[in-house]
Amino acid sequence: MPCLKHNFLKYFLFFLFTLVIISAFSQGKSKITYQAEILRTHANDKNITVLVGHVIFNHEGDLLFCDSAYFHQEQNRIEAFSKIRIKISDTLNIYGDVLNYNGDTKVAEITNNVRLVDSKTTLTTNYLNYDRRSNIASYYNGGKIVNKENVLTSKIGYYYTTPKQFFFKNDVVLVNPKYTINSDTLMYNTNSEVAYFYGPTNIKSKENYIYCENGWYNTKTDKSQFSKNSYLLTKNQYLKGDSLYYDRKSGYGRAYYNVTLIDSVKNVILKGNYIENNEFTKRSLITDSALAIMIDDHKDSLFLHADTLRARYDTANNIELVLAYYKTKFYRKDIQGMCDSLSYYMKDSVVTMYHNPVLWTDKNQLMGDTIRLIIGKEEMKLMYLLNAAFIVAESDTGQYNQIKGKNMVGTFAHNELYRVDVKGSSETIYYMKEDNSNDIIGINKAISNDMLIFIEKKELKSITFITKPEGTLYPVNDLPREERVLKNFVWKSDKRPYQSLDVFK
Fold it and tell me: Which domains does the chain possess?
């Protein structure tokens, strides 16, 4: 008895398995129905039905129209000729001259003058493969897509009819009246009209050139985002970053991380981790490790850092003004400075420093409520210390020559400060030394309405008191240490940038 039960179960399971296989096979060979003006059996093969005139096939609800066809009944296959039309839905139709359709695999091959029309999108090619199971149409020998004002061509293409999405490979070109996109790999959604890039991509227009290796472009709104080696190039500017966002209609762009903006005409490089740029308002904002580098012909660059940098452009899109806000510091080999905020007019070469500004030139520290620098062609020309002007130079360790006045004007020669005119309420403390010696004669402490100071070989050479001078020369030991500094004296050498990267300290 156990053996009989075991055999019964075995045969029963085999029977069920056979039914499943037969059922699956039957479903795979779903019936194709047809109609035509003329129906006849093929002269050489009774398993082939010949259909002529207004031929219509129906397979699972999809309709095939043509002028004539062969239906291979055993193979469940259709060969159709002339005026081919496959109606897949109310909006999706495929046209061509010749068709081969396998009812078992549900794959249609359409050749010669092929058109796939889906709503407002038309695909043309000479060969198209359409898989009804996956609803994917594909070509391998070149095709063209027209979707509104966008025309796309490629060697290889796939159309996913359900999400209405094209996937293109090899020599992909998207032509729009405003720009042309060349890409290695591109995906395009006909509903959203968004193109996605997955390889080296170039976007060319009259205004600019964009390169990226990953990103998207909305052809409807003209908004886009790019990443992976992305950059944007205009006539005078180069912008790159780990990620770029660009709105062509508003001219607005953003870049994130490792951002560089180069003005090739003014020789200015702007760097940071975040930048905003507007082509129409001609403004830029840089923050997060913001740095501006001004390069002269001698490659003696000025490095300017602040929490936030802003740039303004002229009508030719060249930088004409740089503004620095909060914790501003700059370095150049011959001059360094720090302040709260700063403006740099490129056209007039005028730098103005605001709120506790400090300048360093050679051994001199210069301060005032406001400092203005006039820079000629790659050389310092004039310097204005306005209100509460103060110059300090360390004569020896712990010994400071000091000049104080209401306003001062400094004159440069070959980028070296050689003359200072002090105007109003002038005071000085000066360590006098013997000629050709570091021996101190005494400490000269004097006041005057105006003074004229000359600097030679980076050392204080002479002081001339112009009006109402009063002064005393003290022996070094006779002047108490607390009286060797003028009011508001401060020495800030620890804040001075001694190399370019110090501007971030």
Answer: 31-135 (2.60.450.10), 142-218 (2.60.450.10), 234-333 (2.60.450.10), 348-505 (2.60.450.10)
